[in-house]
Structures are given as structure tokens and as C-alpha cells.
Amino acid sequence: MEIILFVYGLSFFILGVLVLFVRTTDSAIFFARKIWLLGIFAILHAFVEWIFLYMYLYPQYEPLLSPLKFTLLLFSYLFLFEFSRFIVRESFKKQSSKLHFLHTLYAAPVIYIISLSSLLSLILLHPSLDDAIAAIRYTYGFFGSLFLGVGLYYYGESLKKSEYVERLKIYFKIPGVAFICYALLAGIAVSPTHYFPGNIINTVWFLDTFGIPVQFFRALCALVITICSIKALQIFSDETHLKMLQSLRQIKRFSSDVSHELKTPLTAMKGELEVALKEPRTNEEYQSILYSNLEEVDTLQSIVKNLLMLTYLEKESLKSKFTQQNVDDVLLKAIEDLIVIGSQKNIIFEIRELENLIVIGDEILLKTVFSNLIENAIKYSPYHTTIFISLTALNHMAHFRIEDEGNGIDEEKLHLIFERFYRADDSRSKQIKGFGLGLSIVQQIVDVHDGTITVKNRHPQGLEINVMLPLAF
């Protein structure tokens, strides 16, 4: 029994130390930024088990140590409960999830009123110390572990697919099952109480029935959780390190691209002005040069505008300003603004479907998405063609689709079109001006709104882009 309790406490202590001292806050995964709550639970719970071990070895100190055990147990389970609350809400935040009701139930005001009321009721009805400890295990211990287990099991499915997420999924599912088992054992690991189920199902009953202390299985769960957490922390560390290297490469490449894109129109302007100053010219020639320079100024203005938009999108506080938006109205405004440009190429806009849909977001950003995609379609569409647009509800998402009748993009280059400064010149027209920031901005805006964007070629020709945005309700 002594070895079981020591190993049990040591497992959680190691888990707590690793979680608190391994840097995970730089990870893009929500779990990594909240795992410190699990670390505090683990350390406090380790001391609970070691206190229990000391009381087991020296029963004469039980009256002195029991209040300390009660206090540490309560606080440890509160941290576990708060961690489970975050994970449950994050795992089931999508309205399409069958367990979405847990996202609402686990809002802080709701769940804490229910849990505190249950705990205080049990303590007031049965005020002895053993019964109060059992009450903590039945409320925060059982439900915290149970719903943390359920949340962890499904958490990996709520994340956007990436190399790290695929590696992490198994290390969410195994601890998820372990925490569910731990929850069931938390309801058994109580001294005999004066109320159900502790008056029947308790540590004494378990030992008499199975001949093995219930703490053995709890220690086994703790070992599984600790080992999987160590593996997850290693993946978080790898992710953070690789992100830093990627960021450095992106900054270097971005600086090079920006300097090139800004240098091109400036060089053209300088060259034309130098030629104009070499000898006297007619008014028409000067006017032609000024018009050409004005176009280059417009190009520079567009580049700067898009760069500022990219900077704006990196603000962490952006989502806090989101409100309900009638996305169909926003789309119609974008179409209205670009009809004139489309008419210059005799392009027809055909709206196949347009549903009244509401999303949570920023009107200016959403309009930027639609405007950039429509403008892109106009730019690469031949004269006398049609651009097809639709907006419908699909699986609790607003589904925007835009199709053009251009040349499409080479299949092997489709995945590159959302990269900054990328232009698919091989399959689209080389005569079309642009600097490859528009679609990069679109993707970032869609990501900020927790949506997705995909692109594919149409048959026999053209390009189709699909944007999915979560509906408000």
C-alpha cells in the first residue's frame, strides 16, 4: 500500500513539475495554453496522496493532517475542474457538435452554481470530515475528471488538421479514457459515508471484493496520464521550435518580397521621369508619362493598404470586437461595388442562391473576403463570360461559392495560391497586374473567423473557391 501511494503521488508530482516548467504558451493549440491548470492540480494532488501515506503510516497524526488533506484536495480538484471546463467548452464549441450543449452548460456562472450548490448541500447534510472529503470527490473530483476525460477524447477532432494535431490525437484520447476511469475510481476512493453511494461503494468494499486497493488502479491511471502528457509536451516543444524557425524564414522572405514589390513601381516611375527630363516633350507625352506614374502610385497604394491589413489581422484582440453580421447583405454590397469593373469586360454576375444568413465577425473584413475573391475572378475571367456566386447554409456553416470561366490553375500549384506574393502566372494571364497579397489576406480573414477556404479547378475550365464560415445560430 505504501509503494502504491508513493508512486501515485510521484506520478502526479512529475506531471505537475513538467507541465509548469516546460514552456507551452507559445503553442497555437488552446490546450497547451491552459495546461498549467492541470499542472497545479497534479502537484497539489501529489501532496494529498503523500499526506494520506503519512497518515496511513502514522495514524496518530490523522486528526492534525486531515484538515490539511481536505483543503489541498478541494483546491486540487478546483483546478482540475477549471481545466476540464476549458477543454469541454473548446472541444464542443461548434454548433454542429452533438455534445454542443456541454459548451453552454460548462459556462462558468452555470456550472459553478450547480457544483457549489451540490457540494455545500452534501457538507451541510453530513458535516463530518470524512463525509466532506467524499463530497468533494463526488462533485469536483468525479465530474471534473469525467468531463475532462470526455473533452480530451474529442478535443483532437475539434482542431484544424496539421502534422502536430495528428501526432497529438492519440495523446489526447488515451489520457481521455484514463481520466474517465479516474473519475469512476474517484467515486470509489472514499471512506465509508453516511449516504449513498459511499455507504455501500467505498475503499473498504473495493478491497474486500477485489483484494486490491482502489489506489492501485488510480496510480495506474496517473502513470498513463503522466506518460502521455510528457509525450504531448515534447510535441508542443517541437511545434514551438519549428514555428520560430518558420517565422524567421517567413520574415526574411517577406522582407525580400516586400522590398521587391515596392522597388518595381518605384524603379518604373524613376525611369519614366528621368526620360521625361532629358529633353522637351509635347503636352500629350507629358500627360502620358503622368498617367503611367499615377498607375504606379495606385499600385504602391494597394501594396501598402494590403500590408496594413495583414498587420491588422495579427492583432489578438480582433475577435473581441466581432458582432452579428448579415453575411448576405455584406456580399451584396461587395458585388454592387464591383459590378462596374465587371461590366468593362462584359462579365455577367449570376447569383444562383442567396440565403439570409448571420455569422459572428467584422463587416469590413468579411467584405474584404468577398471583394478580393470577386475582384480576383473578374481579373482572370475572359471577356463575355459569367461569374457564378452562391451563399447557402450547409452543416451549420455559411457556404460561399464563387466560380469563374478563366483558365484555372495548374493542379500542382493550387495549394500555393494563398501564399503571400504568389501569382500563378503559368496558367493565368501574364498580362494581368497584381502582387499576390489578396488571397493571402482572404485566407487570414477566414482563419480569424474560424472558417475554411478551399480552391479547385472547374471542368471544362475555370476556378471554384469555397468559403465556410460558422453560423451565429
Automatic annotation (TrEMBL):
InterPro entries documented for this protein: BphY/WalK/GraS-like, HATPase_C_sf, HATPase_dom, His_kinase_dom, HisK_dim/P_dom, HisK_dim/P_sf, Sig_transdc_His_kin-like_C
Record's keyword terms, sorted: Kinase, Membrane, Phosphoprotein, Transferase, Transmembrane, Transmembrane helix, Two-component regulatory system
Domain of life: Bacteria
Sequence intervals crossing the membrane: 6-23, 35-58, 70-88, 100-126, 138-156, 177-196, 216-236
Name of the top EC class for this enzyme: transferase
Domain (Histidine kinase) ranges: 257-473
A GO term, aspect molecular function: phosphorelay sensor kinase activity
UniProt catalytic activity: ATP + protein L-histidine = ADP + protein N-phospho-L-histidine
Enzyme Commission designation: 2.7.13.3
One annotated Gene Ontology cellular component of this protein: plasma membrane
GO biological process: cellular response to phosphate starvation
Protein name: histidine kinase
